[in-house]
TrEMBL record:
<dbReference type="InterPro" id="IPR058154">
    <property type="entry name" value="Bxb1_TTP-like"/>
</dbReference>
<dbReference type="Pfam" id="PF25681">
    <property type="entry name" value="Phage_TTP_17"/>
</dbReference>
<protein>
    <recommendedName>
        <fullName>Phage tail protein</fullName>
    </recommendedName>
</protein>
Amino acid sequence: MSVTVTNLAQGPGTLYTGVFGTAEPADSAVNTTPAASGWTDRGGTDGGIKLVMTQTFSELKVDQIVDSPGRRLVKRDFNIQTNLAEVTLENLALAMNGGTAASGSGFKTLTPQTASSATQPNYIASLLDAWGPNQKRRRVIARKVLNISNVESAYQKDAQTFIPVDFAAHYVSESVAPFYIQDEVAA
């Protein structure tokens, strides 16, 4: 078996977020920073940024054969997970899926949302810039996400504090996929 070493990738990614519906950078701009186009860089992360796709299949069965004749996809979850290393109130509000930030002379505050359970959640979009094959950029856009992890930060004597996030992608429409992946290729 031959190995194409240029298809190997290593290195950190950068996580950006925007409001749900933020204009996505053009495919031809995969090698440019998206911050100028309405995306906010969420700063340092710890432990990498992980893409997780979980697919659930329903098995087809018949009495006449012992082998499974097939399966059908019945559920797909797509998540972007990381630990935000910059424990700002803005990143905390992001992890809480919203809140009201305010500042004054020498202070900042964050008040969580106090909506009823029937209120529509505050969906956002997330964008991951990372490395792909041939030392070129890979961009992963999740168009409609919510943080579904617990919001927790440990303040310890001998360990750094983080804000863990797990952005779960959600259905957008019949014509718009919940996530999109772009690779930069040699021109």
